[in-house]
Design goal:
The complex is a heterodimer of chains A (379) and B (343). Chain A is α/β, with parallel strands linked by helices. Chain A has 16 helices and 11 strands. The radius of gyration of chain B is 21 Å and the shape is globular.
């Protein structure tokens, strides 16, 4: 029985599964795959690997489970990621873990990253991006762990491509279903990193004895634009992909959060709306109050009732239909990001080398997409 | 008709999400017992549904007071539990797959005959109106001779049983072929009979496979044709049965339980939808299956999917696994299953 050195947390997820598969086929048995439940673990379960269930929201369970592991790789996602990480960090401190590798995201720089975010040292600015806020908070927690003497590595990919990638599967389906939005001619970097290169970055961090306490971007080199990516993928899948040009500013306007109407009148309008009252009336006491208020209202003179109704009525608003592609789709929003997050620091400081170059990575992605029924055999 | 006094064995996810709600809803069922080796889990489930049934961890305690039993436990336990129930002369509805091996499937079917009772197998999809309509269209020759078919079903993850038994090949009897694929195998047997197996590939390295592909051949009155099956627990697929006949392209989408879609070869501009228009409320086929079970217990009718039908499906699964080869994964450049493309 080999010594169990590495705890892979979130092993049944997209990145965790790719990592465990890679370790397994490399003949390594010095790791343990921790999964949240049995429903998502089919890819891992086919391997003769022991899978251990772990509820990251149960602090005591996490502490017990991680005893004896000098290395923790956190690939977990899901509900309450901050609390889950808090429990992992507490266990790491308790067991004096030597190394903690954490998967973050360039979402920490928001939907429209500032030019300065081309360097990892730039402070997180997630803006309204909720996922980015959570990841930024997690990064702070991992940085605090470094200060307690644990070597930490924060790996920061953007969207992740490759076999089993939900992002690319959705993209390929979208490419087959009609014209695609192409933002500013698709000239910005796509920052799509192949999952096997992310796995390579994890393995590099695990093996490294220097460069801890830092954030590292994980990406392809050289930068690939969205237009290049769409065209290359379409060619490999033999998809006739057509585009509709979209202005970046138009997408950015959609990304700005729509503020709810504030003020006393707006609140009153909500309070007297049928939907709100129907919800409240599940409670008998509210039903009685509502009936009482309705009876009082009916006693008012007709002109007063009509005037009140007019004042409280929400105006009907009908917008023109947009006949262009939806700007809400994930792949459209991703295209507004103009910053290339280079992996140079990872390469120079930790000695990272890509497992697959861009073209080969794309071929593996296309092979899997064809298996999934997307596209036609190539050649 | 008096409601059938029923016990459900197994208080896991399928009971919570399907059998228990169906039993409580049906006027033809009187749920009198909930049995699970984890008594606390059974008690919690009964409490969650405000169910007054007896909760126990000992099946023997309730056999004297029931007229039918549903077995919804991990696959490898089906045969053993069924033996106890059938020996008491009580009919069973066994969740699919009937058992994890053909020998035990055959044994319990013979046991049911010996004790003059019956087994129903929980292949609820055979009850779908669209599935039975297609059988009728094939048998009456409406569609012409069959030329071939393709079936695919896949999702990213999915079923998460409370015990996690789906991660253990010994307990499930297989992977995606058993867990989701047998529903289709059962329908395929129903429509076309037993096939000749041309090939079977899966991606197992010892554990339950996540993906598999099969090719089969038929030489029947319906025609001489081939079919392909693709199943996945990692990848979202079209989840549709495509059938080519002399007259039509036919389609049965998994989500459309009531409708067969046809496109005539000579009128590709037409799309015909046969069956229920979809205006009726959705049918709970677990309830349909359970009520059929109750009716058969009362009248002695043969269930739509009896024990032998279930056993036939177990045999086909065994035969497919016996023809197994490794599924190529050309994208997995680091694994032995990669193809020359990425080697």
């Amino acid at each position: 029985m080999p010594e169990q050195n590495i705890a892979v947390i979130g092993a049944s997820g997209f990145v965790g599964s790719a990592l465990c598969e890679r370790l397994f086929f490399a003949g390594r048995r010095d790791f343990t795959a921790f999964i949240h439940d049995a429903g998502n673990a089919a890819r891992l379960a086919r391997l003769p690997l022991p899978l251990r269930m772990l509820d990251l929201l149960d602090a005591a369970q996490v502490t017990d489970a991680l005893a004896g592991f000098p290395v923790i790789i956190n690939c977990s996602r899901g509900d309450d990621m901050v609390r889950a990480l808090r429990h992992l960090i507490a266990a790491a401190k308790r067991h004096r873990v030597q190394k903690f590798v954490h998967i973050s995201s360039t979402a920490i720089y928001g939907d429209d990253p500032a030019p300065g975010s081309a360097a990892e040292t730039y402070p997180a600015e997630p803006g309204a991006n909720e996922y980015g806020r959570i990841k930024a908070r997690q990064d702070e927690m991992v940085q605090a762990l470094e200060r307690t003497g644990v070597s930490t590595y924060i790996l920061c990919p953007s969207n992740i491509s490759g076999p089993y990638s939900p992002f690319v599967a959705a993209l390929a389906r979208r490419m087959t279903s009609g014209p695609m939005a192409l933002v500013d001619g698709g000239r910005y970097p796509c920052n799509l990193v192949h999952v096997d290169n992310l796995v390579q970055a994890i393995l590099t961090a695990v093996a490294s004895d220097r460069g801890s306490g830092c954030r590292y971007f994980v990406n392809e080199t050289p930068a690939v634009t969205w237009h290049e990516y769409f065209q290359d993928l379409a060619e490999l899948l033999s998809i006739d992909c057509t585009f509709i040009p979209v202005d970046r500013e138009k997408v950015l306007r959609r990304l700005s959060p729509v503020r709810a109407r504030q003020g006393l009148i707006a609140h009153c309008k909500i309070a007297v709306s049928g939907e709100f009252r129907r919800g409240l009336m599940i409670m008998p006491v509210m039903q009685r109050l509502n009936d009482g208020a309705a009876a009082l209202f009916e006693r008012l003179p007709s002109d007063v009732r009509q005037s009140l109704r007019r004042r409280l009525q929400v105006p009907i608003s009908i917008s023109k239909q947009d006949d262009g592609p939806s700007l809400e789709e994930h792949y459209v929003r991703a295209q507004v990001r103009r910053v290339y997050h280079s992996p140079e620091k990872l390469m120079v400081e930790l000695g990272f080398r890509h497992a697959l170059d861009y073209r080969r990575g794309l071929e593996t992605t296309a092979e899997w997409l064809r298996f999934a029924g997307l596209g036609r055999p190539h050649g | 008709m008096k409601p059938l006094r029923l016990a459900i064995v197994g208080a896991g996810e399928i009971t919570r999400s399907a059998h228990l709600p169906a039993a409580l809803r049906s006027p033809h069922i009187d749920l009198v017992a909930l049995v699970d080796s984890d008594r606390a889990r059974a008690r919690e489930l009964a409490h969650a549904f405000s169910c007054k049934a007896t909760v126990t961890d000992r099946l023997e305690e309730v056999l004297g007071s029931v007229e039918g039993v549903v077995i919804a436990t991990p696959n490898h336990t089906h045969a053993g539990i069924a033996e106890k129930v059938l020996t008491a002369g009580i009919p069973v509805l066994i969740e699919k797959p009937l058992t994890t091996d053909f020998a035990s499937a055959e044994r319990i079917c013979l046991l049911a005959e010996h004790y003059q009772t019956f087994i129903a197998t929980g292949y609820k999809t055979q009850h779908y109106r669209a599935v039975r309509l297609l059988k009728n269209l094939l048998e009456t020759g409406y569609l012409g001779k069959v030329r071939g078919f393709h079936y695919e079903f896949g999702s990213r993850g999915g079923w998460s049983p409370a015990s996690g038994y789906n991660l253990d090949r010994q307990q499930t009897g297989g992977g995606v072929l058993v867990v989701t694929g047998t529903h289709f195998l059962n329908r395929m047997l129903y429509w076309f009979g037993a096939p000749q197996i041309l090939s079977f590939q899966d991606d197992s390295y010892g554990g339950p496979e996540a993906n598999c592909k099969a090719a089969v051949r038929y030489q029947t009155d319906l025609g001489t044709f081939q079919g392909t099956i693709l199943l996945s627990k990692t990848t979202q697929l079209a989840n549709t049965f495509f059938l080519e006949t002399e007259g039509y392209h036919c389609k049965l989408a998994e989500a459309e339980t009531e409708v067969v879609t046809l496109r005539p070869h000579d009128r590709p501009d037409l799309l015909l939808k046969l069956g229920n228009s979809g205006e009726n409320p959705p049918v709970d086929y677990f309830e349909v299956q359970l009520e059929e079970f109750a009716r058969c217990a009362r009248t002695g009718e043969r269930p739509l999917v009896d024990g032998w039908e279930g056993a036939r499906c177990v045999k086909l699964v065994e035969d497919l696994y016996a023809n197994r080869s490794q599924l190529p994964e050309p994208w997995a450049w680091y694994s032995p299953s990669r193809s020359t493309v990425c080697a």
